[in-house]
């Protein structure tokens, strides 16, 4: 029996030792890493992430854009007879005196009265010119501007006709019309020919109601119809309405840089203010580049002005915040921290008794002109008093004590702190603020790009 018991005990002992007692280290490490990833992902998703902007010094310019009216010396030529019309000169080309422009009521003859041919084949240069025109049209073609096909057709006809006749051909073309003066050829009229700057009204700038007639779309004309137009002077003007803000910026300015948005070219030209029929208009006088815009009545331009210099920040970073005005004599400035003050706040309880407490407040702005500090209104309730140190004099916090100021959220320390800014210039995207303020911004500060996404003391993760 004893032997059986010992043998059975041994078997039980073997069974106990057969139970695994160690943990797989790889499985444990994987579990810990998985938990760490989940916690990190949760913290990342629950924290506020906002875009930041580094404050830089700079200026803003070119924020004035206008659809300017181009005023030129234009002479509209009209037909003396009725009949089919054929154009020989290209639009935009420079015509010399007596150059053949078009003919009405006839076609070119192949020989002169003596029987001599006056029509010649196109030269290689003429063919190259025609190919170049085709290439330019193909590159710039847009289905939204299909009407340009007709202008291109007329241009090509002009290139071929003008290239295939000799200088004396105008003598033998019935109903020919020659340039009475030197100028640029234009084949459109809009009724604004002869308009001067002092005749301008705001209605002139209604681009949506502007109508221009393309003369080359007509295959025949009646007597008295316009057939072409000559721009006879290389000097031309660009006019645009001037508001009070631009008038201030242009005070004392006699020359300005401008950019044509059509081809992004930049020019410098004289500018002056003129009195129109119903307001003040800017007039820029140009003595070059007419050939580039000779067919345009309206041109999109941008004025490039040298503006105020300071700290350049995005408009989206600007926000507004309300603060309480506390007179200087009612606070004690913390000598160790210039943006902190100490004050005594008196609060009245429900039973009519008062309670005086010492408060440390952060200063957001110091208005030296009015002799007051701006501090967080959350430290007070309407009706509270601030007691002047060492006296019984006190000032009450009322609605009149509240002031709204503009500012940004500084995140240099990793959390949002409101900082006042004084805007001295701005456009649609950026503004220039005053540098050097103790309670404001400095170059290279980091601020919140979109102030609407944060509030005071938010922890910011870039």
Describe this structure in words.
The protein is an alpha+beta fold. It folds into two domains: 193 residues, no CATH class; 141 residues, no CATH class. Helix content is 18%, strand content 35%. Strands 20, 21, 22, 23, 24, 25, 26, 27 and 28 form a nine-stranded antiparallel sheet that branches. Strands 3-14-17-16-15-18 form a six-stranded antiparallel β-barrel. A four-stranded antiparallel sheet has the order 2-19-30-29, with no helix packed on it. Strand 29 and strand 30 form a beta hairpin. Helix 3 runs antiparallel to helix 4.
Task: Name the descriptors.
462 residues, alpha+beta, nine-stranded antiparallel sheet, six-stranded antiparallel β-barrel, 18% helix, elongated, disordered N terminus
SSE topology:
Elements: H1 2-17, H2 25-46, E1 52-54, E2 56-59, E3 64-71, E4 74-78, E5 83-87, E6 94-95, E7 100-104, H3 124-140, H4 148-163, E8 176-178, E9 183-186, E10 188-189, E11 213-214, E12 220-221, E13 226-231, E14 236-241, H5 244-249, E15 255-260, E16 265-275, E17 280-286, H6 290-293, E18 298-304, E19 309-314, E20 319-327, E21 332-333, E22 340-348, E23 354-367, E24 372-375, E25 385-387, E26 394-396, E27 402-410, E28 417-420, E29 423-426, E30 430-433, E31 446-448
Antiparallel strand pairs: 1-31, 2-19, 3-14, 3-18, 4-13, 5-7, 5-12, 6-9, 7-8, 9-13, 10-11, 14-17, 15-16, 15-18, 16-17, 19-30, 20-24, 20-27, 21-22, 22-23, 22-25, 23-24, 25-26, 27-28, 29-30
Helix pairs in contact: 3-4
């Amino acid at each position: 029996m004893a032997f059986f018991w010992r043998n059975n005990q041994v078997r039980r002992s073997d069974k106990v030792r057969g139970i695994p007692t160690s943990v797989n280290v790889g499985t444990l490490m994987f579990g810990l890493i998985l938990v760490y990833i989940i916690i990190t992902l949760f913290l990342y998703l629950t924290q506020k992430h906002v875009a930041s902007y580094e404050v830089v010094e700079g200026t803003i310019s070119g924020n004035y854009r206008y659809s300017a009216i181009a005023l030129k010396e234009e002479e509209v030529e009209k037909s003396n007879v009725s009949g089919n019309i054929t154009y020989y000169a290209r639009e935009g080309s420079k015509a010399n005196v007596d150059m053949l422009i078009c003919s009405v009521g006839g076609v070119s003859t192949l020989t002169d009265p003596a029987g001599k041919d006056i029509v010649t084949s196109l030269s290689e240069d003429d063919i190259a010119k025609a190919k170049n025109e085709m290439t330019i049209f193909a590159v710039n073609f847009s289905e939204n501007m299909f009407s340009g096909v007709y202008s291109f057709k007329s241009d090509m006809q002009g290139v071929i006709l003008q290239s295939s006749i000799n200088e004396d051909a105008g003598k033998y073309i019935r109903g020919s019309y020659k340039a009475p003066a030197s100028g640029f050829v234009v084949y459109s009229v809009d009724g604004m020919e002869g308009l001067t700057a002092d005749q301008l009204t705001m209605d002139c700038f209604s681009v949506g109601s502007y109508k221009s007639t393309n003369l080359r779309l007509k295959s025949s004309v009646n007597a008295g119809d316009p057939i072409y137009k000559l721009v006879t002077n290389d000097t031309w003007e660009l006019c645009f309405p001037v508001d009070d803000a631009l008038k201030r910026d242009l005070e004392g300015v006699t020359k300005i840089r401008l950019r044509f948005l059509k081809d992004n070219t930049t020019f410098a030209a004289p500018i002056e203010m003129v009195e129109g029929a119903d307001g003040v208009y800017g007039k820029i006088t140009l003595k070059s580049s007419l050939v580039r815009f000779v067919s345009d009545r309206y041109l999109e331009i941008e004025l490039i002005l040298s503006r105020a210099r300071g700290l350049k920040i995005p408009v989206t970073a600007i926000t507004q915040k309300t603060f309480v005005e506390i007179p200087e004599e009612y606070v004690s400035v913390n000598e160790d921290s210039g943006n902190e003050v100490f004050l005594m706040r008196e609060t009245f309880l429900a039973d009519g008794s008062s309670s005086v407490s010492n408060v440390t407040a952060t200063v957001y702005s110091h208005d030296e002109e009015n002799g007051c500090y701006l501090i967080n209104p959350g430290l007070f309730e309407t009706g509270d008093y601030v007691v002047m140190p060492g006296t019984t004099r006190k000032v009450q916090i009322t609605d009149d004590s509240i002031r709204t100021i503009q500012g940004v959220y500084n995140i240099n320390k990793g959390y949002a702190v409101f900082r006042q800014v004084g805007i001295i210039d701005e456009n649609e995207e950026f503004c220039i603020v005053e540098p050097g303020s103790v309670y404001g911004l400095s170059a290279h500060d980091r601020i919140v790009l979109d102030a609407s996404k944060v509030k005071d003391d938010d922890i910011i993760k870039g």
